[in-house]
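Page 42, continued from yesterday. The earlier attempt failed because a stray header line got pasted into the input along with the sequence. Redoing it now with the clean sequence only.
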Amino acid sequence: MANNPNILPPNDPDLLLAKRIGEALPDLKALGSDEDPLLNDLFNYKRTVEEKDVDMVNSDDLWDSIESKINETGSSKGRILSMTPAIRRFAIAASILIAAVVGSFLIQDQAQPTLIGQSFASISQVTLSDGSSVSLRPHSRIYMISENENEMAYKLEGEAYFEVTSDPQRIFTVKTERSKVQVLGTKFILSERDNTSSVFLEEGRISFEALDSGNAIELEPGQSSKIDLNTPSPVVTQKDPQVYTDWLNNELIFNNDRVGDIFSELEQHYNISIQGPDVVKNETLSGSIELGDIDAVLRDFELVLGGSFTKVDTKTYQFNADS
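This time it went through. Structure tokens are written below.
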């Protein structure tokens, strides 16, 4: 058996690496400074995955990365190409072991976002560890992704007003489903609803990035931008600042806005659903209204729109125009 050419020698690098990984599971941190080229390729792939902030590892991409290194330039120095078919099967088995553990390998240190603040029927204030403050619009949530000396990263659901403490040495980021805002010290409002992410910069400077396309723009005070299904790349827009900051004063200001967009904002603020005919939703309105009791708000809109709201269930309202 000792001279059997189909058996890998005890000092085969793939076999030794597979054994070391098996012994290290589930904690692979100790292998982070390893000198083995293949393992370093795995760590590089891990860093690439983390930088792209993906939710799932693509096993095909992973294997292509490993295979390209194993068979690099077809050189006889490659670990697999220089072996006999029988021995190659053992080497591939060792590589498969490496790929099999890579799921655990890649997700290490990727903590799930932690809920650190949420609002219900009223605006809620959250103070972050660096002194930055967040005003959450009703029925919104903020999650902490990471907090360290180099970065403070958060995820937002709903809408919030941020007053970020200036710290040139630490990056401050907030993500929604469609966008990412990166700042150093500023005041801005970020919103995510109806597959649309919008931002308004009150003070300072920010980068606003579309997560799907990777395109980003820089905004200056007074500028705004949005990302939606029809606008995958952000563009600079100018609107009345009060349109974005109105809810901080329990007020809704609209300036030639679609009724459908106004309904959407009411849905966010009151955690309800408003249904109505498209002909009404496509009308435009200008004015303001106090965000008090929802029934009083809807009565005001009944007068303006010429119709009535019917409560379908505890959270759903149907608008019917007068005939």
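Notes: The first strand starts at residue 114 and ends at 118.
Reminder to self: strip header lines before submitting.
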